[in-house]
Amino acid sequence: MQWVPVSGQQGENLWEAPTAATLVEWWPGPTLVGAVDKLTPPARLNALPLRLPVAEVVSHSLNRTLGAVAVGGKLEAGVLKAGTQVLVMPANTLAVVKVLCSFVRARIDGGCAF
Asked: Based on the domain organization, do 61 and 76 belong to the same domain?
């Protein structure tokens, strides 16, 4: 964890080094944007078994574009691709991934209808 002094009201030390002489004297560190840019992303857990905690289940009785049921959640570990066979627990039911969608990228593999 790193402490970075900023002034949102004055815009000091957000993306450019402070210009006020009083701040320059005591803060030789990075700007807020500079500190964020130096953060290392968390390690991906691709080698572990698939783990996707389900946050949302939507039943598509009228529109079967995404299949009978669409499931939403955060991929915590493992790798998931369209066509992958998965074991849904605790129901102990096999299912096939038809499409992967992301709110960041509308279409990852296949087609998504948002």
From this structure: yes
- Residue 87 structural domain: 43-114
User: Rounded distance, CA 96 to CA 113, Å?
Assistant: 18
Q: Amino acid identity of 86?
A: V
Output the CA torsion sign for 43, 44, 49, 53: positive
Residues 47 and 30 in one domain: no
Tell whether 60 and 113 lie within a shared domain. yes
Distance CA 109, CA 3 (A): 40
Q: For every one of its 114 residues, what pLDDT tens digit does the chain have, with 9 covering 90 and above? A: 788 888 888 888 888 888 878 778 888 889 999 999 999 988 888 889 888 888 888 776 655 565 677 788 888 899 888 888 988 888 888 988 887 877 665 544 545 554
Q: Please count the other Cβ atoms lying within 10 Å of the Cβ belonging to residue 26.
A: 9
Same domain, 93 and 59: yes
